[in-house]
Structure formats: C-alpha cells, structure tokens
Amino acid sequence: MQSNETVSTETSKDPRPRAGETILLGGLAIGILDFLDATLFFGLYYGASFQRIWQGVSSGVLGPEAARAGGWKTASLGTLLHFVVAFCIAAVYYIAALNIPFLIRHPIVSGLAAGVIAHLVMRYVVIPLSAIGTVAPYDLPSFLNSVVGHALVVGLPVALIAAWSAKKNEASESFPKIGSSLSVPDGLIR
Predict the structure, then answer these.
(1) How far is residue 73's CA from residue 66's CA, in Å, rounded to a whole number?
(2) Do the bridges between strand 177-178 and strand 182-183 make them parallel or antiparallel, or are there none, so unpaired?
(3) Would residue 146 count as lying in a domain?
(4) Binning pLDDT at 50, 70 and 90, where does residue 172 land?
(5) What's the sign of the alpha-carbon dihedral 178, 11, 164, 150?
(6) What is the model's pTM?
(7) Contact 159, 103 (CB under 8 A)
(8) Distance of CA 46 to the CA centre of its chain
C-alpha cells in the first residue's frame, strides 16, 4: 500500500503569541501589579483608604457621589472594573502584536511604550468620557507613578508575556505535523 502523506514544516516568518496565554496571563499580571501599585501609592502618598481608592474606579460608571455612597459594594465594583480594563489592555496588545511583529521582537521597548500609551488613553480619553469627567492636574509624584508605573506594571508585563507566548508557540510549531507540505516517499509508510 502506497501513501502520499505529507508532513508540514511550515512556520510563520514572525512568531505569533497565543490569545489565551497573552490575554489571560497578561490581563492577570496587569490587573494584579497595577492593583498593588494603585493601592500602595494612593494609600501611602495621599492617605486614601483601600475602599476609597477602588470606589474611585467605580465612579467612572456611577459618578463620584454614588460611588462614595455605595461602600464596599462600589469598591468591589471598582476592583472588578479594574480587572476588566486590565484584560482589555492585554487583548489590545495581543491584537497589535499579531499585526506588528516589532512588538514581539522588541518586547521591552514595546512594553514600556505600550504602558505609557495605555496611561495616556485612560487619562485623556477614557476618564474624560466617563462619569468622572475632568482629570485633576498632575503633581510630580503622581506623574511619575502614572507614567513610569504604567510602563513598568502595565505595558512591560503584557509585552514580555506575549513574547514568551510567541516563542513557545514558535517552538511547538517547529515540529513536523502530518498532513501538509513535506512529502514522504512512497513505500516508506505502510
């Protein structure tokens, strides 16, 4: 019995991250690291309570007065919304990385830039369009925490995770697969 089975040796020119790894792990990393940053910075620098910090996030959908009046329920909503945003940032980075190979080849530079961009979009687009409205001006510590913090705890983790996922995905794709381009000589497989 002769066979014309083929074995694939195709690999894409640029490695591609996997959606599940990049979005799930990237979103969790962003969410946890930024949660810790916000809790520690606003708690220590401004003396804000844990509850008030996370009510501040929920005020984006509820408005400041309703968020403050909601107690722990609105603080919990703020925490949930924070993680939703974290997963959205990871999803946007994943989609961008599929289309811009530079993001995978240079994850440190790309991640730092992506974190700054994420901060600027939140500050100058999302928050002004939310129920919060106006954004308070920066003082130097807030500026440094916002810009440098987002570069390090938002952009960099998701970029490193996407690059890791792409490298892992590339390694798994480098093994030949039955059913594609490399022909097996007739008579070799019986």
Answers:
(1) 11
(2) unpaired
(3) yes
(4) confident
(5) negative
(6) 0.83
(7) yes
(8) 27
Cα first-last separation, the chain: 6
Structure-block tokens of residue 177: 């697969």
pLDDT in tens, 152-163: 999 999 999 999
Nearest to 153 by CA among 118, 186, 105: 118
In the DSSP assignment, the letter for residue 181 is: S
Angle between helices 50-62 and 71-99 (to 10 degrees): 70
Tell me how many domains the chain contains: 1
Between residues 95 and 136, the one the model is more confident about: 95
The answer as to whether 10 is a domain residue is no
- The runs of H, that is alpha helices, within the chain are 19, 26-45, 50-62, 64-69, 71-99, 102-105, 107-121, 127-129, 140-150, 156-173
Using DSSP's 3-state secondary structure scheme, residue 98 falls into helix
114 close to 166: Cβ distance less than 8 angstroms = no
Residue 94, domain member (yes or no): yes
In-domain check, residue 7: no
How far CA 179 is from CA of 52, 154, 169, in Å, comes to 58, 41, 19
Cα separation, 183 vs 65, in Å, equals 69
